[in-house]
């Protein structure tokens, strides 16, 4: 491999890692902004940011970006919903949703990468990823609170369905537009 090609690969890799870090920072900024609900699980923008991140970075780098955000929160910085942080948040009743977001990023990003230009597949991927997050979070919440499945679904899933459908629809519209802006700016080597 020539010296010029190696330098270009290093430059691209550095640029891509910068974008991964930037999207983790965007998550840190938007995820804490939440609306608390009586059931204990707040409405947040975390999943919306993850959807946009995987549109830009794909499933591997998008998942990495989320994991960086998760680690930042675990060390105690207030980047989780309600400006909270620390291991206690992960060990608490809503920790399963935080872990479930990893799978959501992987599944959503995979569908976006595997089916370019197929909006219905983007929606299916994001909906499936969200369902897996709901399963992880609901099971963890039930174990932590000893609530029944019906009570947990009423507190942790049903109030969020309409909002999550809206987030998926908005991400489906804005994600490809963000990608186009990066391509037009000559930064297509940074994205998916």
Could you characterize what this model shows?
The chain is mainly α and 192 residues long. Helix content is 73%, strand content 2%. The chain contains 7 helices and 2 strands; from the N terminus they run H-E-E-H-H-H-H-H-H. The chain has helices at 3-30, 46-74, 87-91, 95-114, 119-145, 149-156, 161-184, and strands at 34-35, 43-44. The protein has a two-stranded antiparallel ribbon with strand order 1-2. Helix 1 packs across helix 2. The mean pLDDT is 90.
Please summarize what this structure is:
It is built from seven helices and two strands. With 192 residues, it is mainly alpha-helical. Strands 1-2 form a two-stranded antiparallel sheet.
Termini separation: 24 Å
Order of helices and strands: HEEHHHHHH
Q: Tell me about the biggest sheet?
A: 2 strands, antiparallel
Give start-end ranges of low-pLDDT stretches.
Answer: none
Topology at a glance:
Layout: H1 3-30, E1 34-35, E2 43-44, H2 46-74, H3 87-91, H4 95-114, H5 119-145, H6 149-156, H7 161-184
Antiparallel strand pairs: 1-2
Keywords:
single chain; 192 residues; mainly alpha; 7 helices; 2 strands; globular
């Amino acid at each position: 491999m020539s010296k010029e090609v190696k330098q270009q690969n290093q430059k691209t890799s550095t640029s891509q890692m910068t974008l991964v870090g930037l999207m983790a920072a965007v998550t840190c900024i938007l995820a804490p902004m939440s609306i608390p609900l009586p059931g204990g699980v707040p409405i947040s923008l975390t999943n919306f940011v993850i959807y946009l991140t995987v549109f830009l970075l794909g499933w591997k780098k998008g998942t990495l970006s989320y994991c960086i955000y998760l680690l930042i929160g675990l060390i105690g910085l207030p980047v989780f919903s309600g400006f909270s942080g620390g291991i206690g948040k992960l060990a608490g009743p809503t920790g399963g949703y935080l872990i479930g977001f990893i799978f959501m990023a992987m599944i959503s990003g995979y569908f976006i990468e595997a089916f370019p230009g197929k909006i219905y597949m983007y929606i299916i991927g994001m909906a499936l990823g969200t369902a897996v997050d709901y399963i992880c979070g609901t099971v963890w919440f039930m174990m932590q609170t000893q609530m029944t499945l019906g009570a947990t679904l009423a507190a942790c899933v049903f109030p969020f369905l309409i909002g999550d459908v809206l987030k998926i629809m908005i991400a489906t519209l804005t994600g490809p537009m963000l990608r186009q802006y990066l391509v037009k700016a000559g930064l297509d080597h940074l994205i998916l």
